Amino acid sequence: MNKPTFYISAPFDTYSGYGARSRDVIKSIIKSDKYEVKLLSQRWGNTPWEFINNHKEEWGFLIDHLHNPESEKSQPDIWMQITVPNEFQAVGKYNIGMTAGMETTVVDATWVEGVNRMDINFVSSEHSKRSFLNSKFQKQENGKVVGNIEVQKPIEVLFEGADLNIYKPVKSKFDLSSVPESFCYLFVGHWMQGNLGEDRKNVGLTIKSFLETFKNTPNPPALVMKVSGSGASYMDKKMLLQRYYQIRKTVKGKSLPNVYMIHGEFTNEEMNEIYNHSKIKAMVSLTKGEGFGRPLLEFSLTKKPIMVSGWSGHMDFINPEFSLVIGGTLNKVDKSAVVPNMILPESEWFSPKPADIGNGYKSILKNYKKHLELAKRQAHYSKTNFSWKAMDVLLSSHLDKNIPKFAKQVTLNLPNLNTSNKLELPKLK
Predict the structure, then answer these.
(1) Residues 237 and 342 in one domain
(2) Pairing of strands 155-157, 184-190
(3) Do residues 66 and 73 lie in contact, with contact meaning Cβ atoms separated by under 8 Å?
(4) pLDDT-flagged residues of the chain (< 50)
(5) Is 298 within 8 Å of 285 (Cβ atoms)?
(6) What are the tens digits of pLDDT across the range 13-35?
(7) What one-character-per-residue DSSP string does 77-97 give?
(8) Sign of the dihedral through C-alpha 320, 326, 332, 333
(9) Residues 6+ apart with CB under 8 A from 424
(10) 320 and which of 107, 242, 325, 390 could share a cystine (Cβ 3.0–4.6 Å)?
(11) For position 59, what pLDDT does the model report?
(12) What single string gives the DSSP state of each residue in 319-375?
């Protein structure tokens, strides 16, 4: 039986959040054994790649599905792109766009046009779906309004499930011997553009609020930051350290708590060991907005407390009853954080309340046992509802429900006829 051809263009060979998302989705589609899957590897910004060659034991099976453009010229039955929507192109008979979505309240008009080029679109969270549906623009030609740009094609939510075989409590062997403190908060994320308190992950405010909260405190906790800017290079680390020391100079006190930086690329297993290290007691994220918030989900499975902004994609799986959710308000994106065709100046995202941040840090430290008990419930909630297997089931349901049936190629086996006439049959497609 011939299977429909399923081409997937994605940055699955990169060390990135989109890379991890791509691999999870591709694995699910291949595992279903319903399609002839062919892969086209794409870059993802400046992030390193060669992920597959460096992790052949787990992911080497993807090599067998790499597409050779010279081997086949026919139109794919199904075409999927996992990227930002302004890059979506309809190539197949049926076209699927997949994106984490947007961290703000609205998306760019080019993103709306992108999802409208596809037959169906998958986003990572209810927040991302709302951002698309809230985005409406006037279409102009020669200075005149000729119509509207708004979402016309279906958008479904497909969360980013965590692999429970990897993300689980373990006895960590990760080396944190350079950190003498026994109680550490953990931050994980990219330090993006934007002034203090305006970068998307709010790294600057995370650092400053931590220093302000625990300055002049005897035996203070520490903050461990698994952070990067545009890559894993020495120059990237040097730049981030400079930004850190600039912030540290703004905090006045006789003594300041320590902040440590972990820089570089790590495997999923290594990240899980960081999450589970005995010195890491809680995760903090003062994010201004998330399409989903994958590290938060992964960390939640450790059964340790999380302090996090109470808005955007991660609120699909963060239960306010079990995690410490920071209040705040929606504010216009600062011009220092604007990214053309992505993060718009007229869009809004989250600003956490300064008082809630300091109180949150102190509460976790002072009432750790209470927060630990609640974190166990959050872990159960995440494990039950947001595993890779649960994502796998949902993806299969979405595909079965929406992808049309394609005509199967037929091979005719003719008997040997004793005739001088040669019968030429047209090739069936």
Answers:
(1) yes
(2) unpaired
(3) no
(4) 409-429
(5) no
(6) 998 889 999 999 999 999 999 99
(7) SEEEEES-GGG----SSEEEE
(8) negative
(9) none
(10) 325
(11) 94
(12) -TTTSEEEPEEEEEPPGGG-BTTTB-TT-EEEEE-HHHHHHHHHHHHHTHHHHHHHH
Cα(239)–Cα(233) distance, integer angstroms = 10
Q: What contacts 212, CB < 8 A, 6 or more positions away?
A: 251, 358
Indicate if 378 and 393 belong to the same structural domain.
no
- Amino acid 200: pLDDT: 96
- What Å distances lie between residue 127 and 55, 101, 104, CA to CA? 33, 8, 9
Tell me which residue has tokens 């595993």: 387
Residue 72 is predicted with a pLDDT of 66
Question: What is the reported pLDDT for 139?
Answer: 82
CA atoms within 13 Å, Cβ hemisphere of 352 = 32
Domain contains 408? no
What's the whole-model pTM score? Answer: 0.90
Provide the domain limits for residue 64: 5-158+388-402
State the first-to-last Cα distance of the chain, in angstroms, to the nearest integer.
Answer: 14
Q: The CATH number of the domain where 117 resides is what?
A: 3.40.50
Alpha-carbon distance of 231 to 241, in angstroms, equals: 14
* Tally of structural domains, the chain: 2
What is the DSSP secondary structure assignment for residue 56, as one 8-state letter?
H
